[in-house]
Automatic annotation (TrEMBL):
Species annotation: Murinocardiopsis flavida
InterPro entries to which the protein is assigned, alphabetical: CoA-transferase_III_domain, CoA-Trfase_fam_III, CoA-Trfase_III_dom3_sf, CoA-Trfase_III_dom_1_sf
Record-linked Pfam families: CoA_transf_3
Protein name: Crotonobetainyl-CoA:carnitine CoA-transferase CaiB-like acyl-CoA transferase
Keywords linked to the UniProt accession: Transferase
Region (Disordered): 38-69
Record-level Gene Ontology MF annotations: CoA-transferase activity
Amino acid sequence: MKPLDGFRVLDLTRFLSGPYCTMVLAELGADVIKVEQPGSGDDSRRLAPKVNGESYPFGMPNRSKRSVSLDLKDPRGTSAFLRMAEQADLVIENFRPGVVRRLGIDHDTLSAANPALLYCSISGYGQTGPYRDRPGFDIMAQGSAGFMRMTGHPGGRPAKVGIAINDIAAGATAIYSILAAELARRTTGEGQYIDISLVDAGLAWTVWESGAYFGNGELPAATGTRHRRSTPYQAYRTADGYVTIGANNDRLWRRLVLDALHRPEWLDDPRFATLPARMEHIDALQDAIEEVTADRTTAEWIEALDKAGVPGGPVLRYDEALADPHVVARGMIAEVDHPIIGPMRTIAPPAKFSSVDFAVRGPAPWLGQHTRRVLAEAGLGEAEVDALCADGVAYDAHPERTER
């Protein structure tokens, strides 16, 4: 049994923030029904690479779900959705503010018929404030939250984080907010409206940066791989790449200097003797360390650091990270069989529970794969569904593959 068995979600989200959230809910047991526009579906379905016409990137955050394709701009599509919403526990959307009200599927409308409904909206800037109507993708949120001014190397152009960090932050914020709302609902029976902003979610992760700013007015700037408060704590050049070293307290500093780098004279060097001194002379410290590390390979340095009890590790390419024996041993690569793509690999859920079943439940659906089945579950008759499909209000991209 999964924690969210019996919890039904109508997922109107696209791209990444919402789909990431609902993927996690699905793999915790929720019945996630992805509601998509006929013909095109989620915008991420167009992303390459494609296999047999199906997007592989779309398949990553949309696995373990069902797909219903309805034209919500058609009153008949809206009517069908309203019937589905009467049976739902959660509706989640990431349209621009105001869109769901124009479609007649906003929180006030749906909760009038289903008072216990949870409703979550994700948008770039939130449902209130002067920027509420601005469209906002991850890169706009990274810029607005200050991330692009604190990422990259000093003196360089503004840089985005290598992954869609604000999208994932918003999705993660939505996950714990929805779970909190569901716990409250199980006690009170009351529904809840949840407003998530990509910018807000990102700002909430600036824990140490906000402490430095509020405490001393310090603006976080780009530092490359360096830590803002301690050193040595960065990537250093080796004979064949880079090694990360985290000797960020005096005990680890002594181990690094004496047992790994074999430079005991640094303990008495006034530039490096204390943490404040090391921070003041961080460029000189980097040069000194790299004079040593450049003579041996990354693997040799990791062995030496491990032996000395100093945290260290490689700086891998993504393909190397996925093939790393530790990642493989942790079961972080899962395999699923997609009905059109065929065998697929995906990133598995990261949490390991002692007894909770938390795993990939199945592949992402093709567009409209479960349209007929879900509409029947909502009480629509076969003739009614046939008419909706014939008129393009309901849709199944592969009706020849669908069991009736």
